[in-house]
What we know:
Number of domains: 1
Number of helices: 16
Largest sheet: none
Oligomer: single chain
Shape: globular
Helix content: over 70%
Amino acid sequence: MGVSNFQLNHRPALDGLRGVSILLVLIGHLDLPRITTRGGIVGVHFFFALSGFLITSLLLEEWKERRSIQFGRFYARRALRLLPALVVLLILLVAIASVADGRQGAQATAKSAGIVAVYASNWAILAGKFPNREYLAHTWSLSIEEQFYILWPVTLLVLLRIFGKPLRVAWVVAMLVGLVWWRRYSLVQDDFTRIYFGSDTNADVLLSGAFLALLLAGGLDVQSTVAKNTIYFLGVVMVLACPILLCNYRNCALYCLQLGMPLLEAGLGVLILSLLFTPLRTLFEARWLIWLGKLSYSLYLWHYPIYFWVKAGRGGGPGMQLIGTAATLLAGSVSYYLVERPALRWKKNFEPRMIQSVTTAGA
Length: 363
């Protein structure tokens, strides 16, 4: 039996997966011995795949109900989900820079903040037009996600109207993923930063999540005992692989330029399925992990400048790493409870009735 009537609903385990994702980012950026910053990019790609899956699932449920997508309401929800915490961060960073970094530093931070606000930081970094990378370089991933949010709903609706069924659209998306792989490998001889920061060279991770959502909406059979056992086993393998992804045994280019990203996309797809349909979800439903998942956006926003200040102040010893982590948790908690949560209550006013119970921390 397929799951063409699959509904996302609220899945706490997916909040837990966000918790794992932010842990990979935080640990990857701590400069711990034998821990590579590749953990940061892997954690970001966890977010990409999950975001692609969640957003596409919600859009498909709206399309199934209405045979259309209300773009105005969708973009209003995205703005209320992402902008409040980001705007507060940017205002505070500019204010701090004006005090701590002098006039020139404040101007550089203000210019970078303006670029971040229009979600163009990844391309500005590539063009060498992003003056304050110390505080805001990590916003490249937010820019790629927002560019996806702008383009994907329209693209998805057009594909659904042309091909009619989600399963047919899924195979179109699979071809798009393949084109992104080809595009990335065609740039191997270019500057590695072009591949790392490019929207086109990261689109496959977002689209892989969308592909999974389309498969489920199209009737992917995951209900049989064989399917569930296979998904469960591969999900466990993916969980066990998470610590390995942090180990500094090869450079990041191996991950991005060879088979690392396609393998991760497949692994994340299986992991999401295992959290939806197998007992593995209980591992990700730990309260502390769900809490981290709910805070993950604010933690991501604040960790980078805080880590920079800690390293610039007294170096990166264990004590300062602990202080940086604690300060990040504090700033992230304040941002979530005082900024994000009030905005999320407003966000519900723009949700179609049938998905009001679906939204998770990052959707």
